[in-house]
Each structure stands twice: as C-alpha cells, then as structure tokens.
Design brief:
Number of strands: 7
Order of helices and strands: EHHEHHHHEEHEHEEHHHHHHH
Structural class: alpha+beta
Largest sheet: 5 strands, mixed
CATH architecture of the largest domain: Alpha-Beta Complex
CATH topology of the largest domain: H-NOX domain
Number of helices: 15
Distance between the termini: 42 Å
CATH class of the largest domain: Alpha Beta
Helix content: 40-55%
Length: about 325
C-alpha cells in the first residue's frame, strides 16, 4: 500500500517570492494548486507533496519561466533545506552528509521521496526520486531537487565544482541549455534523476563545519500514514471551511469508499479524526483570551456559539467558557 507524501510548507516560501518578483499573482498560483495562501505564514505546517509539485507547475505557468525551479534552488542553496541544511553543515565529510540526508529527509522535510548514493566502478550517482505515483510537476520538482543536491556537494567541493552530468526523467526538457548554464553541467535524460561524478569526490572534508553550541532543537518528525494525512488536510482546510470526507478523498486521489476502508484498517473513522482536529483547534483558540467564542465557532464551521458549545461539552465534559477559565492563557 503506497503512502501519500507530505512536505513542510516552508518549501513554498521561495516559490512564492519568485512569483512576486516576477510580478505574478500569488492568489492565482495558490488557487491553481488548491492550497491556502495563509500557509506562507505557517512554514512548519505539513502539506501534501503533490500540492507542492502542483504549486511549482502553477508558478512556472504564472511566470512563463521553465527555468524557475533551477534558479530557486541554486539561489537559496543549503538555507532552502532548513533543518536538512543544518544537518549537512554539521557532518565531517560529503559521504557522511549524503548518508545523513538519506536518513533524515523523509522524517524532517519531505516524505515519499528518496535521496541516496550509488556506486558503479569509479563513478558515484547521487540520486533523487519521488516514490509516490505523481505525474504532474515531477520533472520540475526534480530540477528543483537537483539544485539542492548541487548545493550540498558544493559545500564540500567548492562553488566551482561541476559534476560530470546531471540527469532528469522525462522525454524532453524545456529550456535545457539555460538550465545547463545555471547548473554548470550537461543535463541528460534518464530513468532516475541525480548527479553523476567521480567517486573520489565523496571523501571531501567539510571546509566549514558547523558545531552548534549545546543540543540543537530537533524538528518534529513527519508522520505520513493515511490517518496523519487526513488530519493534516482537515487542519489546512479549516483555514477556509470545514471539509467533507469526499473533498478529503479527492485531495488524496482516492474514492470515498477506499478512504473509508483504509481508515477502518487503521482502526479509526473520518468523523473521529475530524473531531480530534476540531478539538485541538478549539483548545488552541480558547487558550488565546482575545478570541471570542462566537468567532471561534464560526472559524470551526459551526453555525453559532450554541452549536459549538454543545459539541465542546460533549468532547470534554465542560463548556468552552469553563475550559478557558481553568487554563492559563497562551503566550
């Protein structure tokens, strides 16, 4: 059974900045990708990986620039990888960095993807692949990823380093010569995206190793099972409206019946997941004393404060006002 990939919303920030710089409409781009624009204000929230791929494609259409993914990843470099970039900077060698990235990427930044190192005689291949069966935006996402792979290697080998070639999937590549110029190497078409370079490069030492003082705060791991995906999608949708199970199933590319069956196999139901998300959102809002209960009710999709109060009383045994009085305010 395949899993639905998730990624941090922070991956959307550089894309949005590029669209704005080009004079494009962020509202239109995010609408085409079917994700709320408000995600830009909450970079650590999780979104579907397929939504990020759709956003990249929408940004390319909006700007009319197929080289956009290459430019984005080359300009942002390791900083664009967030916690993963920090992991790279703390390793002793390129080999250790690539091994670390392979392990932590699915847990900290993006699931349903693979990065890894393979050898063939004296040649190394540092590869990237989306393991979820997504077609739209796949090649553009590979170009984006290749720029980050290059940035990782160049941290150890120097800004002037060039691989023997880069590889992307697909039958053709728009504006190939321009992307090759940005990457500084030939781009070939093949069965798996990645960088090809001499295996001897892998032992390069870190020229500016970062050693954080004390223990750096660990990023919360990403859960990518179907229950977690449904919960994340409900939470995102609540920014605009309360979603139906049919809407959630459609976002996951499943039929309603298939989604219900998979939730049943996981020992839960859609209504149970939605109730947990609503309760968490309600408690977060109630902990802020400036949020009126009537406003919270409307934000959660209730017709009025009375309906919300009855639901909250059923969930917790106390009314929203009683719960708020019993808790210290959030700071």
């Amino acid at each position: 059974m395949s899993r639905h990939g998730l990624t941090r919303a922070r991956t959307m920030g550089p894309i949005a900045a590029a669209v704005t710089l080009a004079g494009g409409s962020l509202t239109r781009v995010f609408a085409q990708a079917e994700v709320p624009l408000a995600l830009l204000d909450t970079p650590d929230r999780l979104i579907l990986l397929r939504d990020q791929l759709r956003l990249v494609e929408a940004a390319i259409r909006e700007t009319g620039d197929p080289t956009l993914p290459a430019r984005l990843s080359m300009e942002t470099g390791l900083t664009g990888l967030g916690a993963i970039g920090l992991q790279v900077r703390t390793t002793a060698s390129l080999k250790e960095a690539l091994e670390r990235v392979e392990v932590v990427t699915p847990h900290l930044l993006q699931t349903a993807t693979w990065t890894g190192l393979r050898y063939r005689e004296a040649t190394a291949f540092y590869g990237y692949a989306v393991t979820e069966p997504i077609t739209i935006g796949r090649q553009a996402n590979e170009i984006l990823a290749l720029g980050y792979l290059l940035g990782t290697a160049r941290h150890f080998l120097g800004a002037a380093w060039r691989p023997e070639r880069a590889v992307v999937t697909g039958a053709s590549l728009r504006r190939r010569a321009e992307i090759e110029h940005l990457f500084g190497c030939e781009i070939a078409l093949g069965p798996r995206a990645g960088l090809v370079f001499p295996a001897a490069c892998i032992d390069a030492a870190n020229p500016s190793r970062y050693e954080p003082a004390g223990h750096a705060a660990a990023a919360a791991p990403i859960e990518d099972d179907v229950v977690a995906c449904v919960a994340h999608l409900i939470d995102l949708a609540l920014d605009e409206t309360r979603p139906s199970i049919d809407w959630i199933a459609g976002r996951l590319g499943l039929s309603r019946r298939t989604l219900q069956r998979r939730l049943d196999e996981a020992g839960t139901r859609y209504a149970d997941i939605q109730r947990r998300v609503l309760l968490r959102r309600a408690e977060d809002s109630l902990a802020r004393n400036d949020a009126a209960i009537g406003r919270i009710a409307l934000d959660l999709g209730y017709a009025d404060a009375a309906h919300f109060t009855r639901a909250f009383l059923t969930w917790t045994g106390v009314t929203p006002s009683q719960w708020r009085r019993s808790r210290p305010p959030k700071t």
